[in-house]
Amino acid sequence: MTTPYTEDCISLTGVFGKPVGFPMHIDPLDTPLRLHELASGMKPGEMIKSLYEPGNYLYLQRNFGAKIFFRGYAFVPVDGTLQSMIDIYRNNQKCRYEDRAPIESDR
After folding, report:
1. Burial class (CB in 10 A: 0-12, 13-18, 19+), 7
2. Domain locations in the chain?
3. Which of 50, 64, 88, 95 is deepest in the core (most CB within 10 A)?
4. Which of 86, 73, 78 is nearest to 24 (CA)?
5. pLDDT band at 2 (very low <50, low <70, confident <90, very high)
6. Are 107 and 53 in contact (CB under 8 A)?
7. Predicted pLDDT at 6
8. DSSP 8-state class, residue 8
């Protein structure tokens, strides 16, 4: 069985310091982000505000963060999170905009 580690527990050198926040998304006009805002039941402009909240940052060891962001690596959410997103997207496809359910988060 695979052991999950939080992203701040990965180091390329074995040296662990205070994690550094790396933003996952920075362009508020990015088309996939705008589509996610629509599909996930967010209010207009809510995605832009969320770019500056902790949920948009991966807190990584400095050496690891610098490497992965320049090479285009990605962290994949656990199955339960992906399934929740898929369920919300499918449900929201059938609803009017004002009736769409938001993705639950623990912000």
Report:
1. middle
2. 7-99
3. 64
4. 73
5. low
6. yes
7. 73
8. G
Q: For residue 28, count CB atoms less than 10 angstroms from its CB and return exposed for 0-12, middle for 13-18, buried for 19 or more.
A: middle
Cβ of 49: how many Cβ atoms within 10 Å?
11
Per the CB < 8 A criterion, the answer to whether 100 and 46 are in contact is: no
| Beta carbons of 68 and 55 less than 8 angstroms apart | no
CA–CA distance, 65 with 35 (Å, rounded to integer) = 27
pLDDT digits (tens, 9 = 90+) for 26-82: 888 889 888 888 888 888 888 888 888 888 888 888 887 777 777 766 667 788 888
62 token code pair: 């400095």
Structure-block tokens of residue 66: 């610098």
